[in-house]
Each structure stands twice: as structure tokens, then as C-alpha cells.
Write a structure and sequence with these properties.
Blueprint lengths: L1 E7 L5 E7 L11 H18 L4 E6 L5 E8 L4 H24 L4 E7 L1
Parallel strand pairs: 1-5
Antiparallel strand pairs: 1-2, 2-4, 3-4
Helix pairs in contact: 1-2
Amino acid sequence: MTKVLLVCGADGCFKSCSAKGHAFFAARGRDIVCSAETLLLRTAISVLEKTGGIKLSCDASERGSLAFSVEVQGHSAELAERLRCTADFIRDGISSLSEEYPGCLLLKEIIE
């Protein structure tokens, strides 16, 4: 099972996300659940990379592991909205996969 941890601020803004493990829906390299999860998280990273006012840190140094976080370097309504939308995107996408493929993904969210 892949365990995804999403950390958001009290305002709903994205702070960090990490995913570890394997969904075990199919063999490594053929697992559609892992592929979908990876696509969701890498899309979130891509959006954050294009967002001004944050410093993005990513770590995918181990197979089956991906972690990324932001350090906010400016405050604006637009930036806050982008970070809330990123959290919503990850939450909704992973939750949807988890509902469709129970036992393959576990989403935990922490509000700081």
C-alpha cells in the first residue's frame, strides 16, 4: 500500500506531501494505480515549480518514494489561492484513486 501524507496550513494552503510504498495493484512497472498517483503528484510539483513566491524542495532519491514541500517567500491572495488549489488537487485526486482502488492507497492529512 502506498501511504500519502498531505500537510496543509490552517488556512488550507499546501505545505508538503510525501508518498512511500507501492500500491501492489499489479507488478512493478505495470501498476496503473502507482502510475496515476505519480502523475498526480508530479503534476502538482510542475504547477508549484511555475509558481512565484515559493521555494520548492523535492526528493525522489529512493524508488517508491517522493516528497516535496514549499517554503513561502511572499504573501499574496493569488499565491494563497494557488497553494489551496494544489492541496485540493492532491487531496481530491488521491482520495478518488483510493476509493476506486481500496487497499492500494492511504491518504493522511495533517493540518498545522
